[in-house]
Amino acid sequence: MPADPVLTPELLLRAYAMGVFPMSEARDDPDVFWVDPKRRGVFPLDRFHISRSLAKRIRQERFRVTFDTAFADVVRGCADRPETWINDTIFALYTSLHAQGHAHSVEVWEGDNLVGGVYGVVIGAAFFGESMFSRATDASKVALAYLVDRLRAGGFTLFDTQFLTPHLASLGAVEIPRGAYHARLSTALSRRAAFHAQGPVPSGQGVVQRSIHTS
Q1: Cα(78)–Cα(82) distance, rounded to whole angstroms?
Q2: How far apart are the C-alpha atoms of 187 and 183, rounded to whole Å?
Q3: Is the pLDDT confidence value at 3 over 80?
Q4: Rounded Cα gap, residues 170 and 7, in angstroms
Q5: Helical residues (DSSP H) of the chain, grouped into ranges
Q6: Which residues pair with 34 in a beta bridge?
């Protein structure tokens, strides 16, 4: 069903609180529609899987990780593919949410080059993951590992991935029915969490160790 043509950041937040999110058919399609999947992808925060090879990559700290330093560039990176649901309207909405403190990004750098990242929306103790991208081996996986570590530290209880892909499933994401998702969403919305509670970006060793202890 097409969304209201007058989309605002406030309307978008209300939609997330109802369990729906916006998409467009293509980059050049001006229309936006709401999605409420029958089965929802989620990351149980205590079951994020770091393989031995990924743990090694994180410990090496070949990549530099930051938070909320290049939000718009992360969204552009996510849209930089042959087919994307991120049109100009969606780009503007999420950058506005970021400016208001409701949307956050994880950036992965190799030198001065942005090679990966993920972004999403925060309401209460829920993080709604929107999209991610990778221009270097394991860059998006590193972004997710640091994000999950931050969500745990900040008291989040729900990490919504919208859909389940083989890539996400390999890292521990699962699929749950719509009703179960809405129950988890309701609980998360009633709680408080803080995206920046963790403070400075932790070491790679710390991210791996905490993941091992909670998995």
Answers
A1: 11
A2: 6
A3: no
A4: 35
A5: 9-17, 52-60, 71-79, 88-99, 139-154, 166-169, 178-189, 204-214
A6: 22
39 closest CA partner among 142, 171, 181: 181
Half-sphere exposure of 104 (CA within 13 A, CB side): 20
Asked if 47 contacts 77 with a C-beta cutoff of 8 angstroms, the reply is no
DSSP single-letter state for residue 138: T
pTM over 0.85: yes
Biggest alpha carbon distance in the chain?
47
CA distance 34 to 39: 15
Residue 21 has pLDDT above 60, yes or no: yes
CB of 9 within 8 A of CB of 102? yes
Domains and CATH numbers, the chain: 39-83+101-214 (3.40.630.70)
In whole angstroms, give the CA distance from residue 170 to residue 43.
Answer: 11
